[in-house]
Amino acid sequence: MFMGEYRHNIDTKGRLIVPAKYREHLGESFVITRGLDRCLFGYPFSEWKSIEEKLKALPLTKKDARAFTRFFFSGAVECELDKQGRVNLPSSLLDYAKLEKECVILGVSNRFEIWSKDIWEDYFSTSEESFAEIAENMIDFNI
């Protein structure tokens, strides 16, 4: 399970440190792809396989299903960590998420997300007031 918030910088070669607590859940290789809200999603292969099966089950005749599947899979790359615990992000993903230097890495249950610091702070500050309302409209559970 991924949780927590970490801040790291991307170096000039596009490498980003993956938090040590996440590395133990990722295995030898994992997948990073375009996420929603201009961030990147990272998945261990076991979780990626589960998502792949769900997306393969979507009807090919539905335009939205085709569009999302293209978006999600075309941005996907298999990644490995180097000896310093860094992942090398391709320029296409750096451009999509507007990652330049300062990044925020979030654990979100079955995945981790990589955000530009500025985009994350803007998202969080504009959404913060509505989190209680969002929680109220979701599945009924006690926190």
TrEMBL record:
Coiled coil: none annotated. Keywords: Cytoplasm, DNA-binding, Repeat, Transcription, Transcription regulation. Residues 5-47, 76-119 form the SpoVT-AbrB domain. InterPro entries: MraZ, MraZ_C, MraZ_dom, MraZ_N, MraZ_sf, SpoVT-AbrB_dom, SpoVT-AbrB_sf. Pfam families: MraZ. Its main location: cytoplasm. It is found in: Cytoplasm, Nucleoid. Forms oligomers. NCBIfam families: division/cell wall cluster transcriptional repressor MraZ. Belongs to the MraZ family. This is Transcriptional regulator MraZ. It comes from Siminovitchia thermophila.
